[in-house]
Specification:
The protein has 120 residues and is α+β, with helices and mostly antiparallel strands. It has a domain of 82 residues: Roll (Ubiquitin-like (UB roll)). The chain is 14% helix and 23% strand. The protein is built from two helices and five strands. The strands form two sheets. A three-stranded antiparallel sheet has the order 4-3-5, covered by helices on one side. Strand 1 and strand 2 form a beta hairpin. The longest helix is centred in the middle third of the chain and has 12 residues.
């Protein structure tokens, strides 16, 4: 019996040595991890909705559609290989973002907003 993993939060995936590899393709446990972003019908931005493993980019888009837009929630899907994402660490929060705190001119408190400017 094969081992199971829920890596990426998308459910149990067989990972044992007896998992069939198909027609010369890598075993499922060797598929790259993709991060999935979906733009909703009412939203303006793509939002991270989860992760999945897929053998290639095209299959990742199809799997993301099947997993994360089952109820017509989205109008656009992005999939990105997790290895292509570079992110800051939460431990670096203070050194990374603290320098912007001393730039008070970036805050709108120094500017007069005309009365005829809407939505501010």
């Amino acid at each position: 019996m094969s081992d199971l993993t829920a890596e990426g939060g998308h459910g149990a995936v067989p990972t044992g040595p007896e998992v069939p590899t198909g027609t010369g393709k890598a075993a499922r446990r060797d598929w790259p991890l993709y991060e999935v972003f979906v733009r909703g019908k009412r939203g303006l931005n793509h939002v991270h909705v989860g992760s999945l493993h897929a053998p290639d980019d095209e299959m990742a888009v199809h799997a993301a559609r099947d997993l994360y837009t089952r109820r017509n929630e989205g109008v656009s899907i992005w999939v990105v290989k997790a290895t292509h994402i570079t992110a800051s660490s939460p431990d670096e929060k203070d050194p990374m973002f603290a320098p912007s705190g001393d730039k008070v001119y970036r805050h709108p408190t120094f500017y007069e907003i005309p009365d005829d400017v809407p939505h501010i």
